[in-house]
Design a protein that fits this description.
mainly alpha; DNAb Helicase, Chain A
Amino acid sequence: MELIDTIRLEQTIIGEMVLENRFFTVADFCTENNFIHHPHPAIFRACKALAESHKPIDLRTIRPHLSTPEFHHLLDCTQLVGYGANLPYHCMELVEKTIRLNVFTQSEKIIHKIPPKALKDFREFQENICLLHGNNDLFKVLEAGKSYFRIHAPAFADTLTTTLRQIDQKASIIKEKHGLQMIKDTLKHYENLTH
């Protein structure tokens, strides 16, 4: 279910971005790395190239930048625009899903370094990351594990610190430009998580 939801979410954002020429709104929230399903990164790059060239983004202008299968996929994405009326919200949701995926992926890279006695707790952390819904839950899990990571996985704690800083920067931009609180009541915990 999560994979299908993420694909549909990416499709909605891509469709809205192209049909409504809203690249800069999406770019306030997302980067190419937030789009993980093919061919969404290629479509995002094409929109970015048009935006950087100060050209409008629409189906006609983007066509030369995409392969035929990519363009046909984009046409499918535009059919979902009716569901994407709240583009900033959908972008925030995609960023949250990307953060969870990044944290899980980074944890998989260091799992062989976790002492056997701590492995059960570490796997429980990974499971909690996968089951989360909403940014507040994500930060509660990270906060709960701060002591554990400092002791058992300092490199992973550094990864979390970097991720949290990126979120902090992104949240400031979003709040300033869109008046939205990206991650309610969680950024104040940033210092506690990293010190």
